[in-house]
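Minutes, project check-in
Item: structure for the 399-residue chain
Input as provided by the requester:
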Amino acid sequence: MTSVDSSKHKKAKALKPTSRRPAKELCSECGLCDTYYIHYVKEACAFINQQIGELEEQAHRRSRNLDNPDELYFGVHQDMIAAQKQQPIAGAQWTGIVSTIAIEMLNRGLVEGVVCVQNTKEDRFQPMPIIARTPEEILAARVNKPTLSPNLSVLEQVEKSGMKRLLVIGVGCQIQALRAVEKQLGLEKLYVLGTPCVDNVNRAGLQKFLETTSRSPETVVHYEFMQDFRVHFKHEDGSTETVPFFGLKTNQLKDVFAPSCMSCFDYVNSLADLVVGYMGAPFGWQWIVVRNNTGKEMLDLVQDQLNTQPVMSKGNRKEAVQQSIPAYDKGVTLPMWAAKLMGVVIERIGPKGLEYARFSIDSHFTRNYLYVKRNHPEKLEEHVPEFARRIVGQYKLPE
């Protein structure tokens, strides 16, 4: 496949619309529908055809073992570690592990390009997917963009460029669609570097979140929901602002998250070769999940640049999760003094490491299961994977 006029795409090109979104309100704007690969969307879209199990077999040569507690939660993997860069990248959201891996792969000639997300000149939070061909272009993409991003919209450019070896950085819904069309891309080698993802918003929703939550929304550079049960906002002047989870104005923010994110059960990016996030590591460290040999190859490139430690797990999440279900459902918002006090207590005695990750997964899966059940009951049976059913089944849910 060397040309965009390849016969396998002629029909797809004829069908390409400018605005159609087959997933309708559940569309995560992954970008596939902005290309002629829309021809495959009914099979590829995570919100039309949930197929994590089948695609795990394709990507990792086996599906997860549901009787293994770690695989039930975190997916197929060979290894999990906690890591930090010994010399952090200036301006990175954490220490820059994702950017470093991408740059090493490009510099060593393992790939010819890297699909990543910069921001527009006008707006630091408006995503602009690109195929980076230089380290400078990769570094310009550092820092998460907490908005829906059409990463796969650049797939047409990949084929037109003639690239044969590609690294794609993305989140779960994007990677599921990518894996579904992987064989159509004409690549010799595809590497997938994933990040965990939950609760994205559109740009207007992000603005509402910032204005509702931060003391200075106009100066926020990036933010993250962290393991200490606080939202950490980094500001232009270098200062950090923290807001307790329990102090969020849930009653105003319940409807701000995208319906696709409220219907997602792939928080941990099950289909990536390598996953780099924070939620399964101690505070200040990154959680790295090696899913297959390709992922190990990617991590090995930067191993000598990292401080590492084994993953750990401490505490018990279940009571906190059970209490959070009705609290979120009813939009409960605590006074800030009470929220701060609760945050201090939970930080001291609450779940840490992998148990914090399970807390986060349980909290979101129970919420999302209720969302699908109430808003898309016709999809409930086929859309919720078996691993998510088992996780949700541990808790008592409201009707």
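Outcome recorded: Confidence is low (pLDDT under 50) at residues 1-18.
No further action items on this chain.
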